[in-house]
Amino acid sequence: MSKDVKPGVSMVRRVKEAVKKESQHQETNVKNRQKSFKEQEKESREAALQNSLSSQNKGFALLQKMGYKAGQGLGKQGAGRVDPIPLNIKTDRGGIGMEEVKKRKAEEELENYRQKARASQQNETKSLEDFRSRVRTEREERKIEGDLRRSRRACEQLDSQKGISVPREEWYWPNEEEDAPKDEEEEEEEEEEEETEQLTSFDKLQILTSYLRGVHFYCIWCGTTYNDEDDLCSNCPGDTAADHE
């Protein structure tokens, strides 16, 4: 039985493989040459930087003709630069001046961060001061309200002992209705009355304690009824809560 033999097929395949190998070999050689050229360039540059200029260098030869001697500084007085300007090789794709732009941008970002940090710290400090001030104010208001309630109870008791059946002012005596539960309508009416009220709790406390001291010779902070005005002035520290601290 005869075989169908095609002698040209094997030869074509061998030619293609040879061409492919040759192409790969050429690419490898090109890469090696490029790598070798970069390495040689780097070595040559480093060697040149380590060696001093000789008279064969045109620039150095020109300086020697002008009177320059190796090792001395530039300029007429020899006070200028002695060493060459350092070589700064760029390895990135940034243009000239890009480093300064990056540096300036980094400094601006740092300054912005510092400003934000300072502003945040100032806001926190102010918030803390406001909170402390608000707490002090609320504490003082509660103390004034408590002193006013004690003064009104004392006023009612002392007035009654002297046979006074009606307070000089309605608010001089405690009002039981103020402590009783209130519905929404009563609360709204009281809010309207408070808006029209001229005297604050502090004003009322000053007026009422002055009345107690002048009429009954009584000091709510001492908790004592004195014999007369002279006894009050001699033994009471003062007419305010701060005087008794």
UniProtKB/TrEMBL annotation:
GO cellular component annotations of the record: kinetochore
Pfam families: DUF4187, G-patch
Superkingdom to which the source organism belongs: Eukaryota
Domain G-patch: 55-101
Stretches with biased composition (Basic and acidic residues): 17-46, 99-114, 126-156
Region (Disordered) location: 17-52, 72-201
One MF annotation (Gene Ontology) recorded for this entry: nucleic acid binding
Compositional bias per record (Acidic residues), positions renumbered to this chain: 175-197
Entry-linked InterPro entries: DUF4187, G_patch_dom, GPATCH11
Sequence similarity: Belongs to the GPATCH11 family.
Protein name as annotated: G patch domain-containing protein 11
Organism: Labrus bergylta (ballan wrasse)
Lineage, top ranks: Eukaryota, Metazoa, Chordata, Craniata, Vertebrata
